[in-house]
Amino acid sequence: MKRVFDLILALFVFAVLAIPMGLVAVLVRLTSSGPVLYWSQRIGQNNRMFLMPKFRSMRVSTPQVATHLLTDPKSHLTPIGDFIRKSSLDELPQLFSVFAGCMSFVGPRPALFNQDDLVALRTAAQVHRLKPGITGWAQINGRDEIPIPDKVKLDEYYLKNQSFWLDIKIIFLTGFKVLLAKNVTH
């Protein structure tokens, strides 16, 4: 049921946002050198690695670490990087990961390949069994401002309480958070 919902919603969102996605792609290409998409190595369901696309918001030479670990994250941004990150437009290519079955609309955000602490805590809490999501319970309850142990507790809450209606609530609240750019620090 969840997979069917993901596919229908992904088709709808893609149809509605295809033109804005095309515009973002053109803007990324015109304002910085390098590819339009950045393929990030992420940890997926059952701790399997997959490549997750995002519109590139950072310069090509940026180290592959969590943004908060960069000394000066803003210095690595492309000219439109700050805008597409704060508006979450950089996340739109993840629709293709939903189509491919690597991601769901709702689930824990996929960890970077080198976030061993997050992966270990999620594995201990059995959260690794979930398909990662474009948005999730932790995203609407703090996003970038949550320490990793608290993020895992929120992911565990989702694991234990997941339902169609909780997913709808998370998607709805995500829309508000994105529009308000709430809890986005970088």
What would the keywords be for this entry?
5 strands, two-stranded parallel ribbon, three-stranded antiparallel sheet, 7 helices, alpha+beta, 186 residues, globular
What does this structure look like?
- This protein has one domain.
- The chain has 7 helices and 5 strands; from the N terminus they run αββααββαβααα.
- The chain has helices spanning 2-31, 81-86, 94-100, 116-124, 137-140, 148-161, 164-180, and strands at 37-43, 49-55, 104-106, 111-112, 133-135.
- A 3-stranded antiparallel beta sheet has the order 2-1-4. The chain has a two-stranded parallel sheet with strand order 3-5.
- Strand 1 and strand 2 form a beta hairpin.
Give me the secondary-structure category.
Answer: alpha+beta
Shape: globular
Strand order of the largest sheet: 2-1-4
C-alpha end-to-end distance: 35 Å
Task: Write the element-wise H/E pattern from the N-terminal end onward.
Answer: HEEHHEEHEHHH
Overall number of domains: 1
Q: Main beta sheet, described? A: 3 strands, antiparallel
Question: Roughly what percent helix?
Answer: 40-55%
Figure out the total of helices.
7
User: How many beta-strand segments?
Assistant: 5
Taking all residues together, what is the mean pLDDT? 90
What proportion strand?
Answer: 5-15%
pLDDT < 50 stretches: none
Radius of gyration: 16 Å
Provide a brief overview of the structure.
This protein has 186 residues and is an alpha+beta fold. The protein contains 7 helices and 5 strands. The protein has helices spanning 2-31, 81-86, 94-100, 116-124, 137-140, 148-161, 164-180, and strands at residues 37-43, 49-55, 104-106, 111-112, 133-135.
